[in-house]
Amino acid sequence: MARVVIDPVTRIEGHLRIEAEVEGHQVKDAWSSGTMFRGIELILRGRDPREAWIWAQRICGVCTTVHALASVRSVEDALGIEIPENARLVRNIIAATQNVQDHIIHFYHLHALDWVDVTAAVKADPAKTSQLAQSISEWPLSSTTYFKGIQDRIKTLVSSGQLSLFSSGDWGHPAYQLPPEANLMAVAHYIEALDLQREFVRIQAVLGGKNPHPQTYLVGGMASTIDANEPGATVNPERIDLMRQLVKNARAFVQQVYLPDVLAIAGFYRDWFNHGEGLGNFMAYGDYSSAGVKDASNFFIPRGIILGRDLSKVHPVDVSNVTEYVTHSWYEYSGGDQVGKHPAQGETKPKYSGPKPPYEYLKTDEKYSWLKSPRYDNKPMEVGPLARVLVAYASGRPQVKQSVDAVLQKLNLPPTALFSTMGRIAARALEADIMIGQLEGWIDQLHHNMASGNVRIHNGEKWNPDTWPKSCQGFGFHEAPRGSLGHWIEIENKKIVNYQAVVPSTWNAGPRDPQGQRGAYEAALQGTPISDPERPLEILRTVHSFDPCLACAVHVVNANGQRYGARPSPYSGIAFAPSMG
Ligand code: NFE
Ligand code: MG
Asked: Would the CB of 16 count as within 6 Å of ligand 1?
Protein backbone atom coordinates (compact mmCIF):
# COMPACT_ATOMS: atom_id res chain seq x y z
CA MET A 1 0.00 0.00 0.00
CA ALA A 2 1.49 3.36 -1.01
CA ARG A 3 0.37 6.71 0.33
CA VAL A 4 0.08 9.33 -2.37
CA VAL A 5 0.07 13.00 -1.40
CA ILE A 6 -1.12 15.85 -3.59
CA ASP A 7 -0.37 19.17 -1.92
CA PRO A 8 -1.20 21.71 -3.04
CA VAL A 9 -3.91 20.64 -5.41
CA THR A 10 -3.76 23.31 -8.10
CA ARG A 11 -6.29 24.73 -10.54
CA ILE A 12 -8.62 25.36 -7.60
CA GLU A 13 -9.12 28.29 -5.24
CA GLY A 14 -7.58 27.95 -1.77
CA HIS A 15 -5.33 25.32 -0.21
CA LEU A 16 -6.25 21.66 -0.48
CA ARG A 17 -4.25 18.55 0.29
CA ILE A 18 -5.31 15.05 -0.64
CA GLU A 19 -3.74 11.95 0.88
CA ALA A 20 -4.70 8.64 -0.68
CA GLU A 21 -3.81 5.05 -0.05
CA VAL A 22 -3.20 3.33 -3.36
CA GLU A 23 -3.07 -0.42 -3.81
CA GLY A 24 -3.11 -2.39 -7.03
CA HIS A 25 -3.60 0.69 -9.18
CA GLN A 26 -6.66 1.77 -7.22
CA VAL A 27 -7.40 4.26 -4.46
CA LYS A 28 -8.39 2.28 -1.34
CA ASP A 29 -9.02 5.23 0.91
CA ALA A 30 -8.60 8.98 0.86
CA TRP A 31 -8.41 12.00 3.17
CA SER A 32 -9.20 15.57 2.23
CA SER A 33 -7.53 18.38 4.16
CA GLY A 34 -7.92 22.16 4.05
CA THR A 35 -4.43 23.40 4.94
CA MET A 36 -5.00 27.04 5.70
CA PHE A 37 -6.92 28.71 8.50
CA ARG A 38 -9.06 31.70 7.75
CA GLY A 39 -11.35 33.56 10.11
CA ILE A 40 -13.81 35.87 8.47
CA GLU A 41 -16.50 34.73 10.84
CA LEU A 42 -14.46 36.11 13.75
CA ILE A 43 -13.86 39.41 11.96
CA LEU A 44 -17.60 39.90 11.70
CA ARG A 45 -18.27 39.84 15.42
CA GLY A 46 -19.15 43.17 16.95
CA ARG A 47 -19.91 44.77 13.59
CA ASP A 48 -23.07 46.39 12.29
CA PRO A 49 -25.07 43.64 10.56
CA ARG A 50 -25.83 46.01 7.68
CA GLU A 51 -22.16 45.90 6.68
CA ALA A 52 -21.65 42.18 7.16
CA TRP A 53 -22.06 41.47 3.43
CA ILE A 54 -19.10 43.68 2.51
CA TRP A 55 -16.82 41.57 4.69
CA ALA A 56 -18.47 38.24 4.04
CA GLN A 57 -18.24 38.75 0.28
CA ARG A 58 -14.43 38.64 0.68
CA ILE A 59 -14.61 35.04 1.83
CA CYS A 60 -13.94 34.25 -1.79
CA GLY A 61 -12.88 35.85 -5.05
CA VAL A 62 -13.93 32.94 -7.21
CA CYS A 63 -17.54 32.49 -6.24
CA THR A 64 -17.48 36.25 -5.94
CA THR A 65 -20.77 37.79 -4.77
CA VAL A 66 -22.42 34.65 -3.38
CA HIS A 67 -21.47 35.47 0.20
CA ALA A 68 -22.83 39.00 -0.14
CA LEU A 69 -26.16 37.54 -1.14
CA ALA A 70 -26.30 34.94 1.62
CA SER A 71 -25.25 37.62 4.11
CA VAL A 72 -27.90 40.24 3.27
CA ARG A 73 -30.47 37.48 3.27
CA SER A 74 -29.44 36.36 6.75
CA VAL A 75 -29.95 39.90 8.10
CA GLU A 76 -33.25 40.29 6.22
CA ASP A 77 -34.39 37.00 7.69
CA ALA A 78 -33.42 38.07 11.21
CA LEU A 79 -35.19 41.42 10.93
CA GLY A 80 -38.20 40.23 8.91
CA ILE A 81 -37.51 42.37 5.83
CA GLU A 82 -39.18 41.71 2.46
CA ILE A 83 -37.30 43.04 -0.54
CA PRO A 84 -38.93 44.68 -3.60
CA GLU A 85 -39.31 42.69 -6.81
CA ASN A 86 -36.63 44.68 -8.64
CA ALA A 87 -34.07 43.84 -5.96
CA ARG A 88 -34.95 40.19 -6.31
CA LEU A 89 -34.52 40.39 -10.09
CA VAL A 90 -31.20 42.22 -9.91
CA ARG A 91 -29.92 39.70 -7.34
CA ASN A 92 -31.08 36.81 -9.51
CA ILE A 93 -29.36 38.26 -12.58
CA ILE A 94 -26.09 38.88 -10.71
CA ALA A 95 -26.15 35.40 -9.18
CA ALA A 96 -27.05 33.57 -12.38
CA THR A 97 -24.33 35.45 -14.26
CA GLN A 98 -21.88 34.35 -11.60
CA ASN A 99 -23.07 30.79 -11.86
CA VAL A 100 -22.67 30.58 -15.62
CA GLN A 101 -19.31 32.36 -15.70
CA ASP A 102 -18.03 30.14 -12.92
CA HIS A 103 -19.09 26.97 -14.71
CA ILE A 104 -17.40 28.02 -17.96
CA ILE A 105 -14.17 28.92 -16.15
CA HIS A 106 -14.31 25.69 -14.23
CA PHE A 107 -14.72 23.49 -17.27
CA TYR A 108 -12.14 25.14 -19.53
CA HIS A 109 -9.57 26.67 -17.23
CA LEU A 110 -9.65 24.55 -14.10
CA HIS A 111 -10.73 21.12 -15.26
CA ALA A 112 -10.31 20.52 -19.00
CA LEU A 113 -6.58 19.92 -18.79
CA ASP A 114 -7.24 16.80 -16.69
CA TRP A 115 -8.78 15.40 -19.89
CA VAL A 116 -7.06 17.34 -22.66
CA ASP A 117 -3.39 16.85 -23.47
CA VAL A 118 -2.25 20.25 -24.73
CA THR A 119 1.01 18.93 -26.15
CA ALA A 120 -0.82 16.27 -28.18
CA ALA A 121 -2.64 19.02 -30.03
CA VAL A 122 0.53 19.66 -32.07
CA LYS A 123 0.03 16.28 -33.75
CA ALA A 124 -3.50 17.08 -34.92
CA ASP A 125 -4.48 17.51 -38.54
CA PRO A 126 -6.18 20.95 -38.69
CA ALA A 127 -8.43 19.84 -41.55
CA LYS A 128 -9.68 16.86 -39.54
CA THR A 129 -10.08 19.09 -36.50
CA SER A 130 -12.28 21.34 -38.59
CA GLN A 131 -14.37 18.33 -39.65
CA LEU A 132 -14.70 17.18 -36.07
CA ALA A 133 -15.76 20.63 -34.86
CA GLN A 134 -18.32 21.04 -37.65
CA SER A 135 -19.74 17.58 -36.98
CA ILE A 136 -20.68 18.48 -33.42
CA SER A 137 -21.60 22.17 -33.61
CA GLU A 138 -22.58 25.15 -35.72
CA TRP A 139 -20.02 27.34 -33.98
CA PRO A 140 -18.48 29.51 -36.70
CA LEU A 141 -14.87 29.44 -35.53
CA SER A 142 -14.17 26.05 -37.04
CA SER A 143 -12.18 26.40 -40.24
CA THR A 144 -8.98 24.55 -41.03
CA THR A 145 -7.14 27.90 -41.11
CA TYR A 146 -8.46 28.79 -37.67
CA PHE A 147 -7.30 25.55 -36.07
CA LYS A 148 -3.99 25.73 -37.92
CA GLY A 149 -3.46 29.19 -36.37
CA ILE A 150 -4.16 27.87 -32.88
CA GLN A 151 -1.89 24.90 -33.49
CA ASP A 152 0.95 27.20 -34.62
CA ARG A 153 0.62 29.11 -31.35
CA ILE A 154 0.88 25.88 -29.35
CA LYS A 155 3.84 24.71 -31.45
CA THR A 156 5.68 27.94 -30.72
CA LEU A 157 5.03 27.45 -27.01
CA VAL A 158 6.08 23.80 -26.99
CA SER A 159 9.23 24.36 -29.08
CA SER A 160 10.30 27.27 -26.85
CA GLY A 161 10.43 24.78 -23.96
CA GLN A 162 8.40 27.22 -21.91
CA LEU A 163 4.82 26.14 -21.71
CA SER A 164 3.74 29.25 -19.85
CA LEU A 165 0.31 28.63 -18.32
CA PHE A 166 0.45 25.06 -19.58
CA SER A 167 3.70 24.22 -17.76
CA SER A 168 4.14 21.24 -15.41
CA GLY A 169 1.10 19.34 -16.64
CA ASP A 170 1.08 15.57 -16.95
CA TRP A 171 1.48 15.71 -20.71
CA GLY A 172 1.82 12.29 -22.29
CA HIS A 173 0.16 10.56 -19.32
CA PRO A 174 -1.40 7.22 -20.38
CA ALA A 175 -4.80 8.26 -18.98
CA TYR A 176 -5.20 10.90 -21.70
CA GLN A 177 -7.47 9.34 -24.30
CA LEU A 178 -8.52 12.05 -26.72
CA PRO A 179 -7.42 11.92 -30.35
CA PRO A 180 -5.07 14.80 -31.28
CA GLU A 181 -7.86 16.63 -33.13
CA ALA A 182 -10.12 16.70 -30.05
CA ASN A 183 -7.18 18.04 -28.03
CA LEU A 184 -6.62 20.83 -30.56
CA MET A 185 -10.30 21.74 -30.63
CA ALA A 186 -10.44 21.86 -26.83
CA VAL A 187 -7.33 24.07 -26.59
CA ALA A 188 -8.90 26.48 -29.09
CA HIS A 189 -12.01 26.66 -26.94
CA TYR A 190 -9.92 27.08 -23.79
CA ILE A 191 -8.52 30.27 -25.36
CA GLU A 192 -11.93 31.44 -26.60
CA ALA A 193 -13.46 30.86 -23.18
CA LEU A 194 -10.93 33.25 -21.61
CA ASP A 195 -12.37 36.12 -23.68
CA LEU A 196 -15.97 35.00 -23.40
CA GLN A 197 -16.10 34.81 -19.61
CA ARG A 198 -14.41 38.23 -19.27
CA GLU A 199 -16.99 39.84 -21.53
CA PHE A 200 -20.00 38.06 -20.06
CA VAL A 201 -19.28 39.07 -16.49
CA ARG A 202 -19.61 42.75 -17.47
CA ILE A 203 -23.22 42.21 -16.42
CA GLN A 204 -21.94 42.32 -12.86
CA ALA A 205 -20.13 45.59 -13.57
CA VAL A 206 -23.38 46.99 -14.95
CA LEU A 207 -25.55 45.96 -12.01
CA GLY A 208 -22.96 45.88 -9.27
CA GLY A 209 -20.38 48.50 -10.25
CA LYS A 210 -17.54 45.98 -10.50
CA ASN A 211 -16.43 42.38 -10.68
CA PRO A 212 -15.35 40.57 -8.63
CA HIS A 213 -17.39 41.67 -5.65
CA PRO A 214 -20.30 43.80 -6.86
CA GLN A 215 -20.84 46.76 -4.56
CA THR A 216 -24.56 47.48 -4.82
CA TYR A 217 -26.00 45.19 -2.14
CA LEU A 218 -27.99 46.65 0.69
CA VAL A 219 -29.87 44.98 3.49
CA GLY A 220 -33.45 45.45 2.27
CA GLY A 221 -32.69 45.44 -1.46
CA MET A 222 -30.12 46.85 -3.82
CA ALA A 223 -28.45 50.22 -4.37
CA SER A 224 -28.74 49.96 -8.15
CA THR A 225 -30.92 52.65 -9.72
CA ILE A 226 -33.56 52.09 -12.40
CA ASP A 227 -34.53 54.98 -14.66
CA ALA A 228 -35.54 54.78 -18.30
CA ASN A 229 -34.59 58.42 -18.91
CA GLU A 230 -31.36 58.66 -16.99
CA PRO A 231 -28.07 57.87 -18.77
CA GLY A 232 -26.34 57.56 -15.39
CA ALA A 233 -28.81 55.03 -13.96
CA THR A 234 -27.65 51.48 -13.24
CA VAL A 235 -30.54 50.15 -15.27
CA ASN A 236 -31.67 52.13 -18.32
CA PRO A 237 -32.55 51.10 -21.89
CA GLU A 238 -28.93 51.15 -23.03
CA ARG A 239 -27.82 48.92 -20.15
CA ILE A 240 -30.69 46.52 -20.76
CA ASP A 241 -29.58 46.20 -24.39
CA LEU A 242 -25.99 45.60 -23.33
CA MET A 243 -26.98 42.87 -20.87
CA ARG A 244 -29.19 41.21 -23.47
CA GLN A 245 -26.34 41.19 -25.96
CA LEU A 246 -23.90 39.74 -23.41
CA VAL A 247 -26.37 37.00 -22.50
CA LYS A 248 -27.00 36.23 -26.17
CA ASN A 249 -23.27 35.83 -26.86
CA ALA A 250 -22.75 33.67 -23.82
CA ARG A 251 -25.78 31.57 -24.64
CA ALA A 252 -24.38 30.86 -28.09
CA PHE A 253 -21.08 29.84 -26.51
CA VAL A 254 -22.71 27.58 -23.94
CA GLN A 255 -24.92 25.87 -26.50
CA GLN A 256 -22.49 25.68 -29.40
CA VAL A 257 -19.18 25.21 -27.60
CA TYR A 258 -19.41 24.26 -23.91
CA LEU A 259 -22.18 21.66 -24.14
CA PRO A 260 -20.90 19.99 -27.35
CA ASP A 261 -17.38 19.89 -25.88
CA VAL A 262 -18.64 18.23 -22.71
CA LEU A 263 -20.55 15.67 -24.74
CA ALA A 264 -17.54 15.01 -26.98
CA ILE A 265 -15.15 14.62 -24.06
CA ALA A 266 -17.65 12.45 -22.18
CA GLY A 267 -17.90 10.23 -25.24
CA PHE A 268 -14.16 9.60 -25.20
CA TYR A 269 -14.10 9.01 -21.45
CA ARG A 270 -17.20 6.89 -20.92
CA ASP A 271 -15.39 4.99 -18.16
CA TRP A 272 -15.65 8.06 -16.00
CA PHE A 273 -19.38 7.59 -15.70
CA ASN A 274 -18.35 4.56 -13.58
CA HIS A 275 -15.86 6.33 -11.30
CA GLY A 276 -16.07 8.99 -8.64
CA GLU A 277 -19.55 8.19 -7.44
CA GLY A 278 -19.26 9.30 -3.83
CA LEU A 279 -21.89 9.51 -1.15
CA GLY A 280 -25.13 9.01 -3.05
CA ASN A 281 -26.73 11.66 -0.81
CA PHE A 282 -27.44 15.00 -2.43
CA MET A 283 -28.80 18.26 -1.06
CA ALA A 284 -29.96 21.55 -2.53
CA TYR A 285 -31.40 24.48 -0.57
CA GLY A 286 -32.80 25.68 -3.88
CA ASP A 287 -32.87 29.30 -5.03
CA TYR A 288 -33.87 31.92 -7.59
CA SER A 289 -37.26 32.84 -6.25
CA SER A 290 -40.05 34.47 -8.18
CA ALA A 291 -41.90 35.52 -5.02
CA GLY A 292 -39.53 35.80 -2.07
CA VAL A 293 -37.21 33.39 -0.26
CA LYS A 294 -39.61 32.22 2.45
CA ASP A 295 -41.52 29.74 0.31
CA ALA A 296 -39.31 27.32 -1.59
CA SER A 297 -42.14 26.24 -3.88
CA ASN A 298 -41.55 29.28 -6.09
CA PHE A 299 -37.84 28.56 -6.59
CA PHE A 300 -36.49 28.11 -10.09
CA ILE A 301 -33.88 25.72 -8.67
CA PRO A 302 -35.87 23.41 -6.39
CA ARG A 303 -35.07 22.53 -2.82
CA GLY A 304 -34.70 18.91 -1.72
CA ILE A 305 -32.62 15.97 -0.66
CA ILE A 306 -31.92 12.67 -2.38
CA LEU A 307 -30.79 9.81 -0.20
CA GLY A 308 -28.99 6.63 -1.14
CA ARG A 309 -29.14 7.24 -4.91
CA ASP A 310 -32.91 6.88 -4.86
CA LEU A 311 -34.28 9.20 -7.53
CA SER A 312 -37.85 8.08 -6.86
CA LYS A 313 -38.12 10.27 -3.77
CA VAL A 314 -37.21 13.87 -2.96
CA HIS A 315 -37.01 14.55 0.79
CA PRO A 316 -37.75 17.99 2.27
CA VAL A 317 -34.97 20.17 3.69
CA ASP A 318 -35.25 21.48 7.24
CA VAL A 319 -32.16 23.53 8.00
CA SER A 320 -32.53 22.94 11.72
CA ASN A 321 -31.06 19.48 10.89
CA VAL A 322 -27.72 20.98 9.81
CA THR A 323 -24.81 20.47 12.23
CA GLU A 324 -21.04 20.83 12.01
CA TYR A 325 -18.53 18.50 13.65
CA VAL A 326 -14.90 19.25 14.53
CA THR A 327 -13.86 15.75 15.58
CA HIS A 328 -11.30 15.64 12.72
CA SER A 329 -10.86 19.40 12.37
CA TRP A 330 -8.33 21.73 13.99
CA TYR A 331 -10.90 23.41 16.20
CA GLU A 332 -12.28 22.84 19.65
CA TYR A 333 -15.87 23.04 20.81
CA SER A 334 -17.03 23.89 24.27
CA GLY A 335 -18.81 20.71 25.34
CA GLY A 336 -16.34 18.42 23.55
CA ASP A 337 -15.23 17.63 20.03
CA GLN A 338 -17.57 14.68 19.49
CA VAL A 339 -20.78 16.68 19.44
CA GLY A 340 -22.31 18.36 16.44
CA LYS A 341 -23.36 21.99 16.68
CA HIS A 342 -26.08 23.70 14.72
CA PRO A 343 -24.54 26.76 12.99
CA ALA A 344 -26.77 29.11 14.99
CA GLN A 345 -24.88 27.83 18.07
CA GLY A 346 -21.69 27.35 16.08
CA GLU A 347 -18.20 28.17 17.36
CA THR A 348 -14.94 29.07 15.60
CA LYS A 349 -12.12 28.26 18.04
CA PRO A 350 -9.04 27.26 16.05
CA LYS A 351 -6.64 24.80 17.69
CA TYR A 352 -3.96 23.30 15.47
CA SER A 353 -2.79 19.88 16.60
CA GLY A 354 -1.33 18.54 13.37
CA PRO A 355 2.34 17.79 12.70
CA LYS A 356 4.88 20.63 12.60
CA PRO A 357 6.18 21.30 9.10
CA PRO A 358 8.02 19.87 7.36
CA TYR A 359 6.14 16.61 7.69
CA GLU A 360 5.43 13.65 5.50
CA TYR A 361 1.84 12.75 6.30
CA LEU A 362 -1.03 14.15 8.30
CA LYS A 363 -2.31 12.26 11.34
CA THR A 364 -5.47 11.25 9.54
CA ASP A 365 -6.86 9.19 12.40
CA GLU A 366 -6.83 12.35 14.54
CA LYS A 367 -7.54 15.89 13.42
CA TYR A 368 -6.40 16.63 9.87
CA SER A 369 -8.21 19.60 8.34
CA TRP A 370 -9.17 23.23 8.77
CA LEU A 371 -12.58 22.37 7.38
CA LYS A 372 -15.35 21.28 9.67
CA SER A 373 -17.61 18.36 8.79
CA PRO A 374 -21.14 19.58 8.01
CA ARG A 375 -23.87 16.97 8.23
CA TYR A 376 -27.59 16.95 7.54
CA ASP A 377 -29.45 14.80 10.01
CA ASN A 378 -26.00 13.31 10.74
CA LYS A 379 -25.56 12.28 7.11
CA PRO A 380 -22.86 13.58 4.80
CA MET A 381 -24.26 15.28 1.68
CA GLU A 382 -22.89 16.15 -1.71
CA VAL A 383 -23.90 19.64 -2.85
CA GLY A 384 -23.42 21.41 -6.17
CA PRO A 385 -24.61 21.31 -9.77
CA LEU A 386 -25.05 17.54 -9.75
CA ALA A 387 -27.13 17.69 -6.55
CA ARG A 388 -29.27 20.48 -8.00
CA VAL A 389 -29.81 18.73 -11.30
CA LEU A 390 -30.70 15.47 -9.56
CA VAL A 391 -33.15 17.16 -7.19
CA ALA A 392 -34.79 18.98 -10.11
CA TYR A 393 -34.82 15.79 -12.19
CA ALA A 394 -36.33 13.71 -9.40
CA SER A 395 -38.83 16.52 -8.71
CA GLY A 396 -40.00 16.17 -12.29
CA ARG A 397 -39.03 19.65 -13.47
CA PRO A 398 -39.82 19.36 -17.20
CA GLN A 399 -36.95 21.44 -18.55
CA VAL A 400 -34.34 19.62 -16.49
CA LYS A 401 -35.83 16.22 -17.24
CA GLN A 402 -35.78 17.01 -20.92
CA SER A 403 -32.18 18.26 -20.96
CA VAL A 404 -30.87 15.42 -18.82
CA ASP A 405 -32.71 12.74 -20.78
CA ALA A 406 -31.47 14.16 -24.08
CA VAL A 407 -27.87 13.95 -22.89
CA LEU A 408 -28.29 10.46 -21.47
CA GLN A 409 -29.89 9.32 -24.68
CA LYS A 410 -27.11 10.78 -26.81
CA LEU A 411 -24.54 8.93 -24.76
CA ASN A 412 -26.75 5.86 -24.36
CA LEU A 413 -26.50 5.90 -20.57
CA PRO A 414 -28.98 5.31 -17.70
CA PRO A 415 -29.71 8.08 -15.14
CA THR A 416 -27.54 6.24 -12.59
CA ALA A 417 -24.53 7.14 -14.77
CA LEU A 418 -24.91 10.64 -13.35
CA PHE A 419 -23.58 9.39 -9.99
CA SER A 420 -20.01 9.83 -11.18
CA THR A 421 -17.11 12.15 -11.97
CA MET A 422 -18.39 12.69 -15.52
CA GLY A 423 -21.93 13.10 -14.18
CA ARG A 424 -20.78 16.16 -12.21
CA ILE A 425 -19.22 17.67 -15.33
CA ALA A 426 -22.32 17.02 -17.43
CA ALA A 427 -24.67 18.38 -14.75
CA ARG A 428 -22.66 21.60 -14.53
CA ALA A 429 -22.84 22.18 -18.27
CA LEU A 430 -26.58 21.44 -18.35
CA GLU A 431 -27.12 23.84 -15.49
CA ALA A 432 -25.20 26.61 -17.30
CA ASP A 433 -27.48 26.17 -20.28
CA ILE A 434 -30.65 26.20 -18.17
CA MET A 435 -29.54 29.24 -16.13
CA ILE A 436 -28.61 31.32 -19.12
CA GLY A 437 -32.01 30.66 -20.66
CA GLN A 438 -33.61 31.97 -17.48
CA LEU A 439 -31.38 35.05 -17.38
CA GLU A 440 -33.07 36.48 -20.45
CA GLY A 441 -36.45 36.24 -18.71
CA TRP A 442 -35.25 38.15 -15.64
CA ILE A 443 -33.76 40.90 -17.81
CA ASP A 444 -37.10 41.11 -19.66
CA GLN A 445 -38.96 41.51 -16.37
CA LEU A 446 -36.58 44.22 -15.24
CA HIS A 447 -37.10 45.97 -18.57
CA HIS A 448 -40.85 45.70 -18.20
CA ASN A 449 -40.74 47.17 -14.69
CA MET A 450 -38.56 50.05 -15.83
CA ALA A 451 -40.86 50.80 -18.76
CA SER A 452 -43.95 50.76 -16.54
CA GLY A 453 -42.40 53.06 -13.94
CA ASN A 454 -42.01 50.36 -11.26
CA VAL A 455 -38.55 51.37 -10.08
CA ARG A 456 -38.60 50.60 -6.36
CA ILE A 457 -35.52 48.58 -5.42
CA HIS A 458 -34.97 49.04 -1.69
CA ASN A 459 -37.11 48.58 1.39
CA GLY A 460 -35.75 50.95 4.04
CA GLU A 461 -38.37 50.30 6.73
CA LYS A 462 -35.94 48.59 9.11
CA TRP A 463 -32.87 50.56 8.13
CA ASN A 464 -32.82 52.38 11.44
CA PRO A 465 -31.40 50.02 14.13
CA ASP A 466 -33.70 51.58 16.72
CA THR A 467 -36.51 49.62 15.04
CA TRP A 468 -34.76 46.28 15.67
CA PRO A 469 -35.55 43.78 18.43
CA LYS A 470 -32.97 43.54 21.22
CA SER A 471 -31.88 40.16 19.90
CA CYS A 472 -32.69 38.08 16.82
CA GLN A 473 -31.30 35.34 14.62
CA GLY A 474 -31.41 34.79 10.88
CA PHE A 475 -30.53 32.33 8.17
CA GLY A 476 -29.47 33.37 4.66
CA PHE A 477 -28.86 30.95 1.85
CA HIS A 478 -27.95 30.72 -1.79
CA GLU A 479 -27.27 28.05 -4.34
CA ALA A 480 -23.73 29.16 -5.17
CA PRO A 481 -21.95 27.66 -8.21
CA ARG A 482 -20.49 24.92 -6.00
CA GLY A 483 -23.64 24.21 -4.06
CA SER A 484 -25.75 25.02 -1.03
CA LEU A 485 -24.45 27.95 0.97
CA GLY A 486 -25.78 29.00 4.40
CA HIS A 487 -25.00 32.00 6.58
CA TRP A 488 -26.32 32.09 10.15
CA ILE A 489 -26.31 35.38 12.03
CA GLU A 490 -27.13 36.36 15.59
CA ILE A 491 -27.76 40.03 16.33
CA GLU A 492 -27.83 41.54 19.81
CA ASN A 493 -28.00 45.21 20.75
CA LYS A 494 -27.62 46.17 17.06
CA LYS A 495 -24.36 44.23 16.66
CA ILE A 496 -23.35 40.84 15.34
CA VAL A 497 -22.62 38.47 18.22
CA ASN A 498 -22.20 35.30 16.19
CA TYR A 499 -21.80 34.54 12.50
CA GLN A 500 -21.34 31.15 10.90
CA ALA A 501 -20.98 30.28 7.23
CA VAL A 502 -21.37 26.70 6.12
CA VAL A 503 -20.34 26.69 2.50
CA PRO A 504 -20.55 24.27 -0.41
CA SER A 505 -16.90 23.26 -0.42
CA THR A 506 -17.06 22.54 3.30
CA TRP A 507 -19.86 20.08 2.62
CA ASN A 508 -17.93 18.44 -0.18
CA ALA A 509 -14.30 18.69 0.98
CA GLY A 510 -14.81 18.26 4.72
CA PRO A 511 -13.16 15.47 6.71
CA ARG A 512 -14.68 12.45 8.43
CA ASP A 513 -17.21 12.87 11.23
CA PRO A 514 -17.14 11.13 14.66
CA GLN A 515 -18.88 8.11 13.16
CA GLY A 516 -16.10 7.81 10.60
CA GLN A 517 -18.39 8.79 7.73
CA ARG A 518 -16.33 10.25 4.91
CA GLY A 519 -16.88 13.63 3.28
CA ALA A 520 -17.93 13.76 -0.37
CA TYR A 521 -14.42 14.04 -1.89
CA GLU A 522 -13.16 11.24 0.35
CA ALA A 523 -16.00 8.97 -0.59
CA ALA A 524 -15.78 9.78 -4.30
CA LEU A 525 -12.08 8.95 -4.44
CA GLN A 526 -12.50 5.39 -3.26
CA GLY A 527 -11.92 2.99 -6.13
CA THR A 528 -10.37 5.60 -8.43
CA PRO A 529 -8.09 3.84 -10.92
CA ILE A 530 -4.46 5.00 -10.80
CA SER A 531 -2.33 4.09 -13.80
CA ASP A 532 0.85 5.76 -12.48
CA PRO A 533 1.06 6.39 -8.69
CA GLU A 534 3.86 8.90 -9.35
CA ARG A 535 1.45 10.98 -11.39
CA PRO A 536 -2.04 10.47 -9.92
CA LEU A 537 -3.87 12.44 -12.58
CA GLU A 538 -7.02 10.40 -11.99
CA ILE A 539 -7.31 11.68 -8.41
CA LEU A 540 -7.32 15.21 -9.77
CA ARG A 541 -10.07 14.33 -12.20
CA THR A 542 -12.46 13.37 -9.45
CA VAL A 543 -11.44 16.11 -7.01
CA HIS A 544 -11.66 18.78 -9.72
CA SER A 545 -15.07 17.49 -10.82
CA PHE A 546 -16.42 19.10 -7.61
CA ASP A 547 -14.81 22.47 -8.51
CA PRO A 548 -13.07 22.89 -5.11
CA CYS A 549 -12.91 26.24 -3.37
CA LEU A 550 -11.01 25.95 -0.11
CA ALA A 551 -10.95 29.71 0.43
CA CYS A 552 -14.67 29.54 0.94
CA ALA A 553 -14.51 26.32 2.83
CA VAL A 554 -12.32 27.58 5.71
CA HIS A 555 -13.52 31.06 5.76
CA VAL A 556 -7.07 35.54 6.98
CA VAL A 557 -4.00 33.86 7.30
CA ASN A 558 -3.02 34.00 10.94
CA ALA A 559 -1.35 37.08 12.28
CA ASN A 560 2.15 35.68 11.76
CA GLY A 561 1.44 34.81 8.16
CA GLN A 562 2.08 31.21 9.08
CA ARG A 563 0.84 28.42 6.88
CA TYR A 564 0.28 25.10 8.46
CA GLY A 565 0.84 21.98 6.51
CA ALA A 566 1.92 23.48 3.23
CA ARG A 567 5.19 22.09 1.92
CA PRO A 568 6.81 21.73 -1.48
CA SER A 569 4.49 19.66 -3.57
CA PRO A 570 5.57 16.15 -4.47
CA TYR A 571 2.97 16.35 -7.13
CA SER A 572 1.01 19.18 -8.57
CA GLY A 573 -0.67 20.01 -11.79
CA ILE A 574 -0.68 23.36 -13.44
CA ALA A 575 -0.09 26.31 -11.21
CA PHE A 576 -3.29 28.26 -11.38
CA ALA A 577 -4.36 29.17 -7.91
CA PRO A 578 -5.45 32.78 -7.81
CA SER A 579 -5.20 33.75 -4.15
CA MET A 580 -8.03 36.16 -4.25
CA GLY A 581 -9.79 34.56 -1.33
NI1 NFE B 1 -15.17 30.17 -3.17
FE2 NFE B 1 -18.04 29.09 -3.03
C3 NFE B 1 -19.09 28.60 -4.37
C4 NFE B 1 -19.27 29.39 -1.87
S5 NFE B 1 -17.46 27.38 -1.96
S6 NFE B 1 -16.29 29.13 -4.36
O7 NFE B 1 -19.63 28.34 -5.25
O8 NFE B 1 -20.00 29.63 -1.11
O9 NFE B 1 -17.78 26.21 -2.24
MG1 MG C 1 -17.88 28.12 8.70
From this structure: no
Which ligand 1 atom lies nearest to the CA of residue 503? 8
Superfamily of domain 2-113+196-553: Cytochrome-c3 Hydrogenase, chain B (1.10.645.10)
Is 472 annotated as catalytic? no
Exposure letters 502-528 (e unless 16+ CB within 10 A, then b):
bbbbbbbbbbbbbeebbbbbbbbbbeb
Residues whose CB is less than 8 angstroms from the CB of residue 453 and which lie 6 or more positions away in sequence, other chains included: none
Question: Does 13 sit in the ligand 1 pocket, CB within 6 Å?
Answer: yes
Residue 142 one-letter amino acid: S
- The pTM of the full predicted model, rounded to 2 decimals, is 0.94
Q: For residue 483, which atom of ligand 1 is closest to its CA?
A: 7
The response to whether residue 374 sits with its C-beta less than 6 Å from ligand 1 reads no
Using the mean position of ligand 2's atoms as its centre, give its distance from the Cα of residue 254 in Å. 33
Provide DSSP, 12-67: SBS-EEEEEEEETTEEEEEEEEE-----HHHHHTTS-GGGHHHHHGGG-SSSTTHH
Helix (H) or strand (E) holding 518: none
- pLDDT tens by residue, the chain, 581 residues: 889 999 999 888 889 999 999 998 999 999 999 998 877 888 999 999 999 999 999 999 888 899 999 999 999 999 999 999 999 999 999 999 999 999 999 999 999 999 999 999 999 999 999 999 999 999 999 999 999 999 999 999 888 888 877 887 899 999 999 999 999 999 999 999 999 999 999 999 999 999 999 999 999 999 999 999 999 999 999 999 999 999 999 999 999 999 999 999 999 999 999 999 999 999 999 999 999 899 999 999 999 999 999 999 999 999 999 999 999 999 999 999 999 999 999 998 999 999 998 899 999 999 999 999 999 999 999 999 999 999 999 999 999 999 999 999 999 999 999 999 999 999 999 999 999 999 999 999 999 999 999 999 999 999 999 999 999 999 999 999 999 999 999 999 999 999 999 999 999 999 999 999 999 999 999 999 999 989 999 999 999 999 999 988 885 333 333 333 333 333 333 222 333 22
Ligand 1 pocket mutation pick from 66, 98, 100, 547 by most atoms within 8 angstroms of CB: 66
Give me the catalytic one of 41, 60, 142, 490. 60
Question: Strands 16-23 and 2-6: what pairing?
Answer: antiparallel
User: Is 67 a catalytic site residue?
Assistant: yes
Name the residue ranges covered by the structural domains of the chain: 2-113+196-553
Atom of ligand 1 nearest to the CA of 60: 1
Q: Tell me how far the alpha carbon of residue 523 lies from the centroid of ligand 1, in angstroms.
A: 20
What lies within 8 Å, CB to CB, of 439 at 6+ separation is: 93, 96, 97, 100, 247
